[in-house]
Amino acid sequence: MKNFKKLLFGSAATVALLCACGQSTAPAESELTKSGINPADYDTVIAVTYDYDNKKFVPDTANAKPVKLYTLTNKNGMEVCITNFGGRIVSIMVPNKDGQLVDVACGFDKIENYFPWNYETDFGCSVGRYANRINGGQFTLPGQDKPVVLDKNNNGYHSLHGGYTGWQYQVYDVVESNDSSLTIKRISPDGDNKFPGNVEAVVKFDLTDNNEIVINYDATTDAPTVINMTNHTYFNLSGDFNNTIDESILQVNADYYTPADSTYMPTGAIKEVAGTVFDFRTPKAIGKHFAEGNPEIEAAGGGYDHNWCLNTKGNQEEICVTMCDPRSGIKLDMYTNEPGVQCYTANFQDGTRPGKGGIMYQKHCAICLESQKYPDSPNKYTMLGWEQSNAIVTPEKPYHSYCKYAFSIAK
Fold first, then answer.
1. What's the average model confidence in pLDDT over 123-129?
2. Active-site position among 158, 161, 232, 289
3. Which of 64, 130, 150, 310 is the most exposed place for a label (fewest CB within 10 A)?
4. Domains recognised in the chain with CATH numbers
5. Which tens digits make up the pLDDT trace of 149-191?
6. Per residue, what are the HEC states of the chain?
7. Is residue 379 scored above 90 in pLDDT?
8. Is 31 tagged catalytic?
9. What is the pTM of this model?
């Protein structure tokens, strides 16, 4: 830490001197990523905690860890930038139908814009311990009488994405890094955001020469707990963040979905998509039903924030979701071993948050495709149709989850 402070102060002094002499300190173009990010803007030392008394996020200087930007590339020129702060995918550069590389992942130019005291955001993150919602912020493990009581960080109703300081706000340790792969690890102690058990979780990102981002999640625990990890990248395949995703074409391999109440909590019912606005078994524009006043869409903030029950039933070799954009020609096929996918259409972006290049992220600026156990599965996995969503992990039953995002040009 002392060496870091010395380097930091030395760099600041150098910048001040150069400015005083009228010299530019802007990075050379060769120092930027293909998405235009200066990796130096991600170099920091940080930890986040939550001040319950004052109800706000604050830096945790005693436990601060180094953060960097890691860049993966393949032989086709594709580039994926990831930071170990929250295990976040920051940018994804893929070729469009004209062969030009464009960014299809909403995010930010500088690391401080991911800090929760500036913006509370899940852009691009590796979510844990439990992605999505747990009803009323509590659940009971098998064989135990007392419930596990969590923080209700979702508008006072539910636990969401692992609590106030879920893993999206934690620094993952880097285990291994090379040109096409990044492996990060999170040690989550017993009681972390009030979840039981000491957990060691590993996330491995691989960028293949087939233009695929493969994500493997693995975790072990020393006591029964629940784990449900996912990636929360905001995809906009148009290649221009000024566009919404309303015109993008979506197909979801699912005959059923889980309806939700006004607090976005699944009711426990499993309903057929046939005859509803949730029927994406054949391709159609994502925004086709947005202006129709459908009560389920309106209750979710004017878009989708729902779980689809995948027909793939754990077969990670079968496509579960396909999306493409007619403007760029870019196609995304998704694969997972999980039973569900949450499709969230950025319903609460409101044009007040500047993203990369200063573009203001508007409503429906992107869609998240989150592989997952069904939301609230710790309370519902014994219900009919929910059995495949058992998220309980024990020392004898470790956790593994797989997701692949494969990019190509639509034919």
1. 98
2. 232
3. 64
4. 29-230 (2.70.98.10), 240-394 (2.70.98.10)
5. 999 999 999 999 999 999 999 999 999 999 999 999 999 999 9
6. CHHHHHHHHHHHHHHHHHHHCCCCCCCCHHHCCCCCCCHHHHCEEECEEEECCCCEEEECHHHCEEECEEEEECCCCCEEEEECECCEEEEEEEECCCCCEEECECCCCCHHHHCCCCCCCCCCCEECCECCEEHHHEECCCCCCCCEECCCCECCCEEECCCCCCHHHCECEEEEEECCEEEEEEEECCCHHHCCCCEEEEEEEEECCCCEEEEEEEEEECCCEECECEECCEECCCCCCCCCCCCCEEEECEEEEECECCCCCECCCCEECCCCCCCCCCCEECCCCHHHCCHHHHHCCCCCEEEEEECCCCCCCCCCEEEECCCCCEEEEEEECCCEEEEECCCCCCCCEECHHHCEECCCCCEEEEEECCCCHHHHCCCCCCHHHCCEEECCECEEEEEEEEEEECC
7. yes
8. no
9. 0.93
